Amino acid sequence: MKIEDEIKGRFRNEYHKGLINLVYTEKHVSYQFLQYLKKYKLTESQYNILRVIRGASAEENVSIRYLKERMLDKNSDVSRIVDKLFHREYIDRKENSIDRRQKEISLTTKGLTLLAEMDDCEKKVDLLLKNLSLHEVKNLNKLLDKIRG
Fold it and tell me: Which keywords does UniProt give here (predicted)?
């Protein structure tokens, strides 16, 4: 459906329309994604942190700084999110042997199990772009990268 029909609005020009379309589509896709996460009682930021930790190589120390650098939402309060995940027993925090102010963060067995259960969520997320061909998705990625400069 065209953006004009979705929001029943008019636009100053194609750039304005493109920006509104981008924001509206992001909200639409994000809402659908949040519906998947609700089942597991996780926020997008919590899920993002769990995936970043799982994706870290064994040689990398996962710290708050490491997580902040890799977060999709750069305004997230990573320390607070880590605390919540720790209290839910999805992650573990250990004092860094070199710098006691730093904490080394890792997934617990419970956290790994949760992510394994959520693998179907990954497949459902891929379907959020099902109306696009692989070629179109590649073009979309190029255009989004270009927007960010």
Answer: DNA-binding, Transcription, Transcription regulation
pLDDT tens, position by position, 26-46: 999 889 889 989 999 999 999
- Amino acid identity of 55? G
CATH of 41-117, one of 1.10.1410.10, 3.40.50.1820, 1.10.10.410, 1.10.10.10: 1.10.10.10
- Taking alpha carbons only, the member of 76, 67, 70 closest to residue 105 is 67
Phi, psi of 95 (to 5 degrees): -70, 135
Task: Name the residue ranges covered by the structural domains of the chain.
Answer: 41-117
Burial class (CB in 10 A: 0-12, 13-18, 19+), 35: exposed
- Residue 147 CB partners (closer than 8 Å, separation 6+): 22
Instruction: Give pLDDT, residue 100.
Output: 66
- pLDDT at 47 (0 to 100): 93
Q: What is the DSSP letter of 104?
A: E
* Residue 145 burial (10 A CB sphere; 0-12, 13-18, 19+): exposed
